Amino acid sequence: MTACSQQLTLESRLVNFGVGRDERTGGISFPIYPSATYRHPGVGESTGYDYTRSGNPTRQLLEEAFAQLEGGARGLAFASGMAALTTLFLHFSAGDHLVVSQDLYGGTYRVLAQVFGKFGLTASYVDTTDVAAVAAAIRPETKALLIETPGNPLLGVADLAALGALCREHGLLYLVDNTFLTPLLQRPFAYGADVTIYSATKYFGGHNDLCAGALVARTPELGERLYFLQNSTGGILPPQDCWLLLRSLKTLGLRLERHCANAGEVARWLKAHPKVTAVYYPGLEDHPGHELSQRQTSGFGGMLSFRVDTAETARKVLKKLQLISFAESLGGVESLMTLPAVQTHADIPVQERLRLGICERLLRLSVGIESSCDIIADLEQALA
Question: Which among 149, 177, 212, 268 could disulfide-bond with 158, CB atoms 3.0 to 4.6 Å apart, if both were Cys?
């Protein structure tokens, strides 16, 4: 029999988060508090809750879960991943400059270029798997480095430790979008990150039935600043969705095990298919980031992309899918496939997309938790 540590694992803590917190009833499931406002005991007195935008018991529990899961000082829950990113970008001022991953979600590019660009916030998009390229992009007015790793949709792997050292050297905020792996597989704070970012719609939610976002700050000071922005601008997650997300987090460990196992099998099968010209998955031994992933993560995740022989083949595959759904988003129990060039990354200029390799032959697959045999069988008939 293997001896177990007396300290609870993250998986066990997630399953039991909130258990016993409702002291009045002893409820295993923490209740939903839908109240928009709260009575005051007297003038200048508060129960700790005044108005639900500023604080709500159900959301507070979820935000505590985010912080504990990540190992940070403060978690914040938002109505979407883009609401979380927008609040984070409001931390900066006109004239500030960001260095950003070029392999990133198209919506992040859109909000930076088309919204914050109007207010004087600028960004340079670089290959963040190349530390020298990141260093070369830093300017006197640069205030932060924002990375997604693995990247979206090409699954490039950035060196978290090396980039963390670079940020410390230049006094930059280190911002890591960890949506693809979650804190169960990758721990950005261990490498010096200041803020982690999540589309909680994805693996945190895991069932394609809610929309949410999260920020976790490493320090109390930064957490307080982000809370000020959250409260001021109001992009909060409603209590009903907070409860749903708390419920979903309980199974995150189990779901990720199956996502990772399935993705590895699917990636190896795709690699051998004659109509597939390239497979992008860090779990494959020939992926450029494979060894780095082994050092800085505890799993390769459930996301992969692959390139087929023609754009016509890609469109036929999407048309013929039966088990796998042709749909945007990722991280749910159901397998989903998208064509990034015309969906998730359509707001990136065409020439830039093509330079990055996001062409109409590239398909992105969020591998679900169905039987891997059934997923592969669906891909086989769709590629036939």
Answer: 149
Is 241 noted as a catalytic residue in this protein?
no
Tell me the average pLDDT across 200-216: 98
Given this model, what pLDDT does residue 4 score? 62
This model's pTM is above 0.90: yes
Task: Specify whether 225 is located in the same domain as 115.
Answer: yes
Whether residue 266 is found in the same domain as residue 355: yes
Beta-strand (E) ranges in 33-156?
Answer: 74-78, 97-101, 122-126, 142-148
The model's pLDDT over 309-363, given as tens digits with 9 standing for 90+, comes to: 999 999 999 999 999 999 999 999 999 999 998 887 877 888 888 888 899 999 9
Q: What is the largest CA-CA distance in the chain?
A: 74
Give the end of a domain, one of 184, 217, 249: 249
**Residue 53 is among the residues annotated as catalytic for this protein:** yes
How many structural domains is the chain composed of?
Answer: 2
Among 59, 143, 187, 202, which one carries the catalytic annotation?
202
The catalytically annotated residue of 96, 103, 159, 177 is: 177
- Specify the CATH number for the domain of residue 71: 3.40.640.10
Residues 13, 53, 110, 247: which is the catalytic one? 53
202 catalytic? Reply is yes
Q: Are residues 108 and 137 in the same domain?
A: yes
CA distance 382 to 384: 6
Residues 299 and 204 in one domain: no
